[in-house]
Specification:
The protein is α/β, with parallel strands linked by helices. The chain folds into 3 domains: 166 residues, 3-Layer(aba) Sandwich (Rossmann fold), CATH 3.40.50.300; 178 residues, Rossmann fold, CATH 3.40.50; 85 residues, GMP Synthetase, Chain A, domain 3 (2-Layer Sandwich), CATH 3.30.300. 32% of the residues lie in helices and 20% in strands. It is built from 13 helices and 17 strands. A 6-stranded mixed sheet has the order 2-3-1-4-5-6, with helices on both faces. A hairpin with a 2-residue loop joins β8 and β9. The longest helix has 17 residues. The chain is elongated, with a radius of gyration of 26 Å.
Length: 460
């Protein structure tokens, strides 16, 4: 069955405002799903989050931004303001969110002054009008003097339809939106995962050559999974910057727990995972746990050893890179199919090679072993090293075939169906042996090889 293409966005809408006014709740309401973390702690959203909104008359892309003027970590405030400014520059409509329960604040007034200078249309969104008795609170914001305003409750959905009508009236016409890039094919989703401060956001910034995600030495800066569309040589990619995954005993807050859960879900929805490891620390126990999450999710994977600029020797750099890559494969033996790239997100060294490796994985995903070749290969493997006896029985192979892939995904784990006498007789060790023999015939870099045993009665 042919997959229907997603509706094409006709414009971009940025959500801005001071911390804790309900921007993320509004973002989730417009996106139709919980993407941004909603929490009563100020400063939760620091990066720009993007998602399509298809609830209105015409589809558009909505941006959530970090809270402006918050009292969070001082070193991040300038970057958050910069991220919000960039979103405003790039958008067709700005939603300026204020909190009706708090009333008009000095930060609201200052931000209103800045927004009035923008040529982009601004809609004043008076949030937290959760009940008809709150409607009188709207008058507090009349002095801001914006042409368009709408009272609503993002948490309860009140007033959203009115907001969508106003947004649609301000979006570009179809002719103006015709220059938007085509969305005929689904972009390849790349989840960038790793421990806090391994350099995930820096790697994405190096790819984009744009400070789009917030980079800070403070661990835990990225708290949401940030989706970034990226086009390269005519191909569409979705770069997903995730929260750093740390040991649960070290979680500093419930927000961080939610971030880790979100990162784990991101691994499951990605086409390919890029595991970023800090070279200055080496492969840690937590890196192995994250690699284990990727393995458990049966996801294709690449490993990027970041911060090469900090450990690069003056001489024999190539030999050192080979030694480090070999040592990494030993530590991550259960992900030995994952290519290892040594790079520096800070200087950009070898970052370009990441997409060469992705192309290699994509090509390998299209390779199918012929049924005849596969059966001869596996029968030879059984003869050279027979499976162990379990109880009084031994695994017997009758027939094998490679399963067809999911047309929705361009890269995915490879599945081989083995028709055997009794599926439970395939031990984990012998399964890895058979996987190794398959990879001798076809290496399948970056791709998990999964063996699915099915029972078939022996012929008498």
């Amino acid at each position: 069955m042919q997959r229907k293409n997603a509706p094409e966005s006709v414009g971009k809408v940025a959500i801005v405002g001071r911390p804790n006014v309900g921007k993320s709740a509004l973002f989730n309401r417009l996106a139709g799903r919980n993407i941004a973390i909603v929490h009563d702690q100020p400063g939760i959203t620091r990066d720009r989050l993007a998602a399509p909104c298809v609830r209105g008359p015409r589809p558009f892309t909505v941006w959530d931004t970090g809270g402006i003027g918050g009292a969070g970590e001082v070193e991040l405030r300038t970057q958050v303001r910069g991220a919000a400014d960039a979103a405003m520059r790039e958008s067709d409509v700005i939603l300026f969110v204020v909190d009706a329960q708090d009333g008009l604040t000095p930060i609201d007034q200052e931000l209103a002054r800045i927004l009035r200078k923008s040529k982009t249309p601004v809609v004043l969104v008076i949030n937290k009008i959760d009940h008809p008795k709150h409607e009188d609170l709207e008058s507090d914001f009349a002095q801001l003097n914006f042409a368009s305003s709408v009272p609503l409750s993002a948490a309860h959905g009140r007033g959203i339809s009115g907001l969508l009508e106003i947004i649609d009236s301000l979006l570009p016409t179809s002719d103006a939106a015709s220059d938007q890039p085509s969305t005929e094919s689904r972009p390849l989703a790349l989840a960038v995962v790793g421990r806090p401060n391994a350099g995930k956001s820096s790697l994405i910034n190096s790819i984009l050559r744009d400070a789009r995600t917030i980079v800070s030495e403070l661990p835990g800066t990225t708290r949401d999974a940030v989706d970034i569309l990226y086009e390269r040589d005519g191909e569409q990619f979705l770069l997903i910057d995730t929260a750093g995954i740390r040991a649960r005993s070290k979680h500093s807050s419930s927000v961080e727990v939610f971030s880790v859960m979100r990162a784990e879900r991101t691994i499951r929805r990605a086409d390919l995972c890029v595991l970023v490891i800090d070279l200055t620390s080496g492969v840690t126990g937590q890196d192995k746990k994250i690699a284990g999450l990727i393995q458990k999710a049966e996801k294709p994977c690449l490993v990027v050893l970041n911060k090469w600029d900090l450990v690069k020797p003056k001489r024999a750099a190539k030999a050192e890179m080979e030694r480090i890559a070999s040592e990494t494969r030993e530590h991550l033996f259960f992900l030995d199919y994952a290519p290892v790239l040594i790079a520096s997100a800070l200087t950009g060294e070898n970052v370009e090679q990441l997409f060469r490796l992705i192309a290699d994985v994509r090509r390998a995903a299209r390779v199918r072993l012929g049924t005849g070749v596969l059966n001869r290969l596996l029968r030879a493997a059984f003869e050279e090293n027979p499976p162990p006896t379990i109880g009084t029985r031994r695994l017997k192979l009758f027939y094998a075939a490679q399963a067809r892939g999911d047309e929705e995904r361009t890269i995915e784990a490879l599945k081989f169906i083995l028709f055997v006498n009794q599926p439970k007789l395939l031990s984990e060790t012998y399964g890895r042996y058979l996987e190794g023999r398959i990879r001798v015939a076809e290496p399948y870099p970056g791709l998990p090889v999964l063996l699915n045993c099915r029972a078939r009665a022996e012929k008498m």
